[in-house]
Design goal:
mainly alpha, 3 helices
Length: 71
């Protein structure tokens, strides 16, 4: 019984959070510079290392290829 009540409470909590709608005049505030998700330099470096290691260059710009040395 307690598990059912907890599951119901969790479902209602999630549903109430996702029911929020953004008004057109609020979108301007959300588009401002402080609200943008930017990578810190460490994350950018880690992403570049990962792209290089996997041979997945091309999605972030640069030469596309399979990592085998052929172009």
């Amino acid at each position: 019984m307690k598990k059912t009540i907890m599951l119901l409470a969790l479902t209602l909590a999630v549903a109430s959070i996702t029911a929020c709608k953004v008004k057109p005049w609020q979108k301007e505030t959300l588009a401002l510079e402080p609200m943008q998700l930017n990578d810190c330099p460490l994350h950018r470096f880690e992403r570049n290392v990962e792209v290089y290691r996997e041979g997945a260059v091309g999605g972030n710009g640069g030469k596309s290829g399979g990592g085998c040395g052929c172009s």
